[in-house]
Amino acid sequence: MPTSNDEAAEQEIEARRSRLSIPLDHFISPAQKSAIRAPISEALTLPREAFLSEEFQQLEAERLFSKTWMSIEFAHSVSNVGDVLPLSIFGIPLLIVRDDEEKIRVFHNIGAHDACPIQFAPGTGQKELVSPYHGWRYDLRGHLTAAPFWDGSKNPAIESMGDRAVGLEEIPSAIWCDTIFVNLSGNAQPFKDYISPVLTLFRGRDVSELEVTSDREGNSFTSTYFSEGNWKTYMENTCINIYHEGFVHQLYRDSPDVPRVNVNGEKTFQEVVDRGLLALYFDLKDASETYPPMDAPSITLPNGDVPTDMAICALFPNTNITLTPQHITIEIARPLGATRTEIREASYLAKGASKRPNYLDLCAGIHRIGEIVAEEDGAMVAGVQSARQSPTHDQVFYSPFWDTLHYEFNNLILNALDSE
Predict the structure, then answer these.
(1) What is the pTM (predicted TM-score) of this model?
(2) 141 and 99 Cβ atoms separated by less than 8 Å
(3) CATH topology for 197-417?
C-alpha cells in the first residue's frame, strides 16, 4: 500500500534510529548525565570517551549536527558564477555551487544513478556539472539536463526516466556574514531563529557589505589549519574558556586587564547565554590595554554610532565569532574524526577599509595575530586531547566563577544527544 511523504519520512527516521548500534547510555550513564546537569558548583563535564570515541562522534553526527544548522564554508570560496567546491562533512560528500543567478546552493555530491560523486575537485566558471563516471550532465541548479546513452540512444529524453528523482538533492542552506550554514536533515528550526541571538548581540551592525581581508596578491586571507583534538575540545578552548587567557596567550599575559577582574575580584565582563549563543561580552574601557585602537573604519551601529563593545562567542555547535568595533573574525570547526578538527578562519573589515593606505598592513596584522593565537591554543588542545587517554579523571569539574559558558556548552551537547 503506498505511503504518504510524511509517513515515508517517519519510516526513514525510524530506520536511521535503528541503525544507531550503540545507545547514548553506553557512553554516558544516567549517573554521569545527572552530574553534567547538576548546578555548576557540583557539576562535572562530559566523560572522556565523548572525546575519544569514533562511535560517539557518529552519534553526534546523527543526533546533533544533522538536526541543527552548522557552518561548513565561506561564501567567498565560491565567489563567481560557476564556482564549485566539493567537501566532506562526517564523511558525507557535499557540493557547494554558485549558480547562474549567483545564488549559492549546497547539494549532496552523489549521483542518483551510479552513487558516484558528481565532482571530485574544485572548479571555477563552470557552465554545468558533469559526472566523471557516466557523463550525466546537470545545470548549476542541480537539474539533470543530459544522460548520454542511458537507454542506448545518444541523447535520451530525461522524461524517459519516469518519476525517478534524477536531479541532485539540495540541502537547506543559509548565509550570514559570508558564512555558509547547512541543515543536513532539513528539520532544524528556521535559520532566522537560529541566528537571532547573534543579531541581538550585534545590535544591528550591518555585516552585508563587510570586506574579507586580503594579502598583497589580492587573495583572501582565509586560513586552514588543523587542531589535533576533538571538535569539542577545540570549541571549549577557543572562545568560551575565559580562565586560560593569561596563562596561554602572550597578548593577555602582557595586559594588566587580565585576568578579567577588578581590584575587588569582580568580573569585568558578562557571560551571554542565549539559546545556542555563548559569549564573553565586555566594553573596551575594561580592556583598553589588551586591545589597542585599530586604525580602520568602524562597523557602526544603525544610528551611526561607533560601538565600544566586544564579544568572543561560540555559536553552537561549531562556529566561533570574534566581534570588535572594527573587524569580525569567524572560525568554522569541521570534525575530521574523534581526535582531529579542520579549522577554516576568515576576518572581515568595514566597507571602505581596502581604500585605506594601511590596508595591507592591517590585514597582515590581523592574520598574524590569528596565527599566533592558533599556535598557542593548538598546543593546549593537543595536550588536553592526549591527556584524556588517562583513566584517572573520567570527568572533570568547573570553576563556577569562570566556566559558565563551558558548562552551558556541555549541557547543549548532552541535551541534543539525549533527545530522539
Answers:
(1) 0.94
(2) yes
(3) Naphthalene 1,2-dioxygenase Alpha Subunit; Chain A, domain 1 (3.90.380)
